[in-house]
Amino acid sequence: MEIWQALLIGLFAYLGRNQVPWLFGTTGGWYGIGRPLAAGLICGLILGDVKTGVLCGVAVQAIFIGQITPGGAVPSDLNLAAYIGIPLAIVSGGTPETAVIFAVPLGALGVALHNFTMTVQAVFAHRADRCAERADASGVRIANIAGTSISFFERFFIVGLTCYFGAPFAEGLLKAMPGIVLNFLAVGGKMLPALGFAILLKQIINERWMIFLFIFGWVFTTSFKLTTTSLVFIAIALSLIYVMARYNNVRTVSANAVATQPQKMVYESEEGDYEE
């Protein structure tokens, strides 16, 4: 890997980092190019192997597809896991399972780095408050620039230098591993995406019978050799049928409930309107 490739990957890693204001803020950054699927495409374009990059991105994305951030607590840093794990897997000649193996510990490391960065940035936030009390506009500006620069140095240099110096290490590590260890890692790498989908299903399935929809989709796909695009359109059609049927059923029940309510009779007298 060339130094410019490593630094360019580091730049995209910074742009896709959490709480970075560029690229439409969190929407285009953390939830855009910060996702492993987008990171796989970007790293593949930079390193000249788009196919492997996308496959690695899909594999890494599948692990964390059910991840949520309750109360702002990030369980795993997808950005660091993707922008280091995927390039190392590509340059070392590994498989998508290799990217998964790299991504899991890197995601945990990314959370530690993120928490450390946020702690250091709090110092500059308090400094900006003190400067604001003294009406020191220049001090406030410097404190804000210095605080946000920490995120840049933390992500740009760590990712860039790790990709550059870690590529030979990752390649040598894979070559030195015996076949039985590689097979074990390959099996584990295929099981982790299944775990990610299981976590996602646990969140979106409200009723037990809905699990049969998942089983139906899996059997339907394997039996008729459908592509993912075809399956998406079938799933959208079934979802619309289910939602419309449930909505119409609710309207019918509501209409029947209104019809069965006793009607009040209103008549007019000299004193005014009366109901009975």
UniProtKB/TrEMBL annotation:
Pfam families, A to Z: EII-Sor
Keywords: Cell membrane, Membrane, Phosphotransferase system, Sugar transport, Transferase, Transmembrane, Transmembrane helix, Transport
Molecular function GO labels: transferase activity
Topology versus the membrane: Multi-pass membrane protein
Taxonomic superkingdom: Bacteria
GO annotation terms (biological process): phosphoenolpyruvate-dependent sugar phosphotransferase system
UniProt KW Magnesium keyword: no
Major place of residence: membrane
Protein location: Cell membrane
GO cellular component terms listed in the entry, alphabetical order: plasma membrane
Residue ranges crossing the lipid bilayer per the database entry: 28-47, 54-73, 99-124, 145-167, 179-200, 212-245
InterPro entries: GatZ_KbaZ_carbometab, PTS_IIC_man
PANTHER family linked to this entry: N-ACETYLGALACTOSAMINE PERMEASE II COMPONENT-RELATED, N-ACETYLGALACTOSAMINE PERMEASE IIC COMPONENT 1
Name of the protein in its database record: Phosphotransferase system sorbose-specific iic subunit
Biological source species: Lucifera butyrica
Highest classification ranks of the organism: Bacteria, Bacillati, Bacillota, Negativicutes, Veillonellales
